[in-house]
Design goal:
Strand 5, helix 8 and strand 6 form a beta-alpha-beta unit. The model has no long low-confidence stretch (mean pLDDT 94). Helix 1 packs antiparallel against helix 2, helix 7 packs across helix 18 and helix 16 packs across helix 18. This protein has 501 residues and is of the alpha/beta class.
């Protein structure tokens, strides 16, 4: 019906334009500049076989795809409320932007959060609070077991793993500059160390993934010689071995072909312009004891720098087996980073992002309890990652047992990320998660570097104010009994009850 109507209308307008132009004024022939393209578009729509909507509704069917293309923007700017929006709602996005720009980050007229909603959380305050101004406003944690020769004094809040390739060169530079300015650490991600990581001399945590980028042999295996050369840079303070990632555990990293430029391929030791899929498993070891021996090898090759591993918890017994291997071999990892299933990524299958992996709060509580049960916690620091972007979220992680926190998307928003959700398409409009040179030009390294530093400082400061309000002075004093979660409209429990020791 719609196709018949289209052809009838088209012929009426085409013949009408011809007759009017012939009998009244040739000027009307200019109408063919519009009518003919529309007509041929309609003919193409009817003849093509991929889209039933276009075959049945030529021309007007394109409006469906047009509206769908900017639906996310309509939702974000006009439909969602301040407390809605995924992965981060407008309240948190605005908070990050305000702190990054050093603007007022207070809220007027009271909370917009429904405090009686199941899942609402809060921290217990004290009627005998501490003076927040007297607390250490750059709190640090010493990372390094008794087997570590070069322990690192690490900030409690750091940049989580994001590779050059997933991010643009200017984004990497700005992040590292921010890390230098605010004196915290920058995790390189599994894509290796690029010149942009080194340019501003910010402290680095070199991450090794299953692709062994930066320490990769021609056969795709671990190369001790290349590893030793890579970690010889003075900026490299710690090494993190990635076992799995919260957003896609058991899958391996993905670098789309569009992002794999010649420069990135050279840094990673792979072929350019092809999608790079890191395997889901390591070739350097295949058992808990093998993992410990590999950690010892990395620590020896790096002249005693702290070496740890990152994982998303899946089967609990496998982590228990790691603890048993630590005791059996006598080799201590210097830290363990827990990445929650709510973590971010540039590209991952939906099933892996949504339905695999333990959320970080459950995982962190389990790992802390397990380490304590095996008398290992005193040697090992715990890092936590999973949508940690505010002072309260820092406090919550520390109460569960974390010593240090990571943030990736929070730092991206400090750079100017607008949550466009185009990280996997090379079309990031703000030049962060793209290798498109025209888009990258919009990112000013100097300005964004200071914004990252501002965000870090103000978020840590907000955490310290919460700490002082709770009558505490140090992050390690936070316990699960200090954090509450509402179960229903009339009942709430402490984290100590929900996640017992």
């Amino acid at each position: 019906m719609a196709r018949t109507f289209f052809f009838i209308i088209s012929f009426v307008f085409l013949i009408g334009a011809f007759l009017i132009g012939y009998f009244i004024s040739p000027t009307f022939y200019y109408a063919f500049l519009i009518l003919l393209p529309v007509f041929f578009l309609g003919v193409y729509d009817v003849l093509q076989k991929k889209h039933a909507i276009l075959r049945n509704f030529p021309v007007i069917g394109h409006f469906r795809y047009l509206l769908e293309s900017f639906r996310p923007e309509i939702m974000q700017y006009f439909v969602e409320t301040n407390t809605e929006g995924r992965p981060f709602n407008r309240i948190y996005r605005s908070l990050i932007y305000q702190r990054a720009k050093n603007q007022t980050d207070t809220t007027p007229f009271g909370t917009q959060v429904d405090v009686y909603r199941p899942g609402h959380e809060w921290i217990d305050h004290s009627i005998y609070p501490k003076d927040a101004h007297k607390l250490d406003h750059n709190p640090k944690v010493m990372v390094g077991s008794s087997q570590c020769k070069q322990p690192y004094v690490c900030s409690i809040f750091n940049i989580s793993a994001m590779s050059y390739g997933s991010l643009s060169n200017r984004a990497v530079e700005a992040l590292n500059k921010g890390a230098l300015l605010a004196d915290f650490a920058h995790n390189t991600g599994e894509g290796g160390i690029s010149p942009y990581h080194l340019k501003h001399n910010g402290d680095l945590i070199y991450q090794i993934g299953t692709g062994y980028f930066g320490c990769r042999s021609k056969e795709g295996r671990f190369s001790p010689e290349k590893f030793k050369k890579t970690v010889s840079a003075k900026q490299v303070k710690m090494i993190e071995l990635k076992l799995s990632q919260g957003a896609k555990p058991g899958h391996g990293g993905i670098l789309p072909a569009k992002k794999n430029t010649k420069e990135i391929a050279q840094i990673r030791g792979v072929e350019p312009h092809k999608a790079v899929h890191s395997p889901p498993f390591h070739k350097a070891f295949d058992s808990p004891e093998g993992l410990m021996q590999f950690i010892k090898q990395l620590r020896d090759l790096s002249e005693g720098r702290p070496v740890g591993f990152k994982l998303c918890i899946g089967k609990k017994q496998e982590f228990i087996d790691i603890c048993l291997a630590i005791k059996k071999t006598g080799i201590f990892p210097d830290f363990i980073a827990i990445d929650g299933a709510e973590g971010g990524t540039g590209a991952a299958p939906v099933e892996f992002s949504d339905r695999i992996g333990m959320p970080y709060k459950d995982a962190l509580a389990f790992v802390y309890n397990t380490l304590v049960a095996h008398d290992l916690k005193k040697e090992i620091k715990l890092f936590a990652a999973g949508k940690i972007v505010s002072g309260f979220q820092l406090a919550r992680a520390f109460a569960l047992g974390a010593d240090v926190c990571y943030s990736a998307r929070g730092m991206m928003m400090a750079l100017g990320c607008i949550q466009a959700l185009q990280c996997n398409s090379n079309t990031c409009p703000v030049g962060i998660a793209t290798q498109n040179k025209q888009l990258i030009k919009g990112l000013n390294i100097e300005d964004k570097g200071h914004r990252v530093a501002n965000y870090h400082k103000k978020t840590v400061s907000a955490f310290l104010e919460l700490l002082a309000a709770a009558g505490l002075e140090r992050s390690e004093q936070l316990e699960r009994k200090h954090i509450n979660r509402r179960i229903n409209s009339t009942e709430f429990k402490t984290y100590e009850e929900i996640f017992p020791y």
